[in-house]
Design brief:
By secondary structure, this protein is an alpha/beta fold. 52% of the residues lie in helices and 12% in strands. It has a seven-stranded mixed beta sheet, sandwiched between helices. Helix 12 links the parallel strand 6 and strand 7. The longest helix is centred in the first third of the chain and has 23 residues.
């Protein structure tokens, strides 16, 4: 299961214990379990802060708050060390009602859980780094306690695949690394033939990096190196309000695109420069070699920004690819939601949860064909005669 699903189930399990205690705790002297709803409420809020706001997260927070409210008196009795000899009928009935709600929530969470994909099963590695800074000043790794993270960059690659630039960065930052790690990176780079096929992917603002994880891992398995990121610096103002915060941004974009699509399209056109800044920052972070084949990829909303940036850096960027152009892709702009967000897939297109990862593989195949065609054109394989002459 994904971290988000595990966090939701942990909160619901705590609520289950709290609501069910009226059945298995008899003649209680000190109701210690009354503190559990408070713990569940705090954990549900922390989960939203870590994973972002969503409808299902809001429902779980509301349920935890509702259970907490009905346990306030019990919690006050606990803090005052008041002895309880039985549970009253009203408390028993409301606990039973809450128990039924919690059980229903558990069933829904399990049934609509995202499909879990493991990097190890794809023989791939997934690394991430938190950065602070702005588009104007640039981004640096978070190293100090008071450095506020403004971006998280992810890198997906085949296991043991290392870029030459990774070795350069390791040596430049050797003070922060063990020497054996630097040596291991250098050896891996020597054993990894180049040039490399690098894909810089920026998810839409109504989604996140997590919405495309199956695609990244499939690409990494097939020998591509993928960089992607979530940027939320101070100079990336989309709404000009608290809606720009990481916790709320994807939800507000998704809500706007579903309720007022024309206004959503206008907002994207107005802030095309922000998409360009994101791709440019990702390109700077990846720091590809001039011999590498570099593709910009996105899903519908970033198409114009990709073409604009390609025109600005024709020597570095070899092509662009819009996932929305893939035939039979049912949810352009949202990612393979059958795998990453089954509840949304049912709402958008009536699609069922698909653990086979078919759509992710279908989209990835189209992207790989485009990148491979350009890579082969830029790096033609010499004929046997040419190889013989070279010898």
């Amino acid at each position: 299961m994904t971290q988000k699903t595990l966090a939701e189930l942990m909160v619901l399990f705590l609520l289950l214990i709290s609501c069910a205690r009226v059945f298995f705790l008899k003649k209680v002297k000190i109701d210690v379990v009354s503190i559990v709803p408070l713990i569940a409420l705090v954990l549900s809020v922390l989960s939203v802060c870590a994973q972002g706001f969503s409808v299902e997260a809001a429902v779980i927070v509301a349920l935890a708050f509702f259970v907490f409210l009905w346990n306030i008196r019990a919690l006050l009795r606990l803090t005052s060390q008041v002895v309880i000899d039985h549970y009253g009928t009203p408390f028993f009935l409301i606990s039973l009602f809450n128990l039924l709600l919690v059980l229903a929530a558990i069933v829904i969470v399990v049934y609509t859980r995202p499909v879990f994909v493991s990097a190890s099963k794809f023989n791939a590695t997934q690394t991430s780094e938190r950065l602070h800074g702005t588009f104007y000043s640039g981004f640096q790794p978070v190293e100090q306690v008071f450095d506020r993270p403004c971006a998280t960059v992810f890198r997906f690659a085949k296991r043991n695949a290392t870029l030459a630039t990774d070795v350069e960065q390791s040596e430049n930052h050797a003070i922060y690394m063990r020497q054996q790690d630097v040596d291991a990176a250098r050896i891996a780079a020597q054993n990894t033939p180049g040039p490399h096929k690098i894909i810089l992917f920026m998810p839409n603002k109504r989604t996140s990096v997590q919405s495309y994880i199956p695609l990244y891992l499939k690409l990494a398995h097939d020998g591509f190196i993928v960089y992607t990121a979530d940027f939320y610096p101070d100079d990336a103002s989309w709404f000009g309000s608290f809606k720009d915060r990481f916790v709320f941004r994807a939800f507000n974009f998704a809500l706007l695109s579903l309720s007022r699509p024309a206004e959503y399209e206008e907002l994207l056109k107005k802030h095309t420069a922000l998409f360009i800044n994101e791709y440019r920052s990702l390109l700077t972070y990846a720091h590809p070699d001039i011999t590498d084949t570099v593709f910009l990829a996105g899903d519908q909303d970033t198409a114009f920004a990709m073409e604009t940036l390609k025109a600005l850096y024709p020597a570095l960027i070899d092509g662009t690819f819009d996932l929305a152009t893939v035939q039979d892709y049912p949810t352009p702009g949202w990612g393979p939601v059958e795998q990453t967000y089954p509840l949304l897939a049912r709402y958008l297109k009536g699609l069922e949860r698909d653990p086979s990862l078919y759509m992710s593989s279908h989209i990835t195949t189209a992207l790989e064909k485009a990148v491979n065609a350009t890579h082969e054109r830029l790096n033609p394989i010499p004929s046997e005669e040419e190889s013989h002459d070279a010898e």
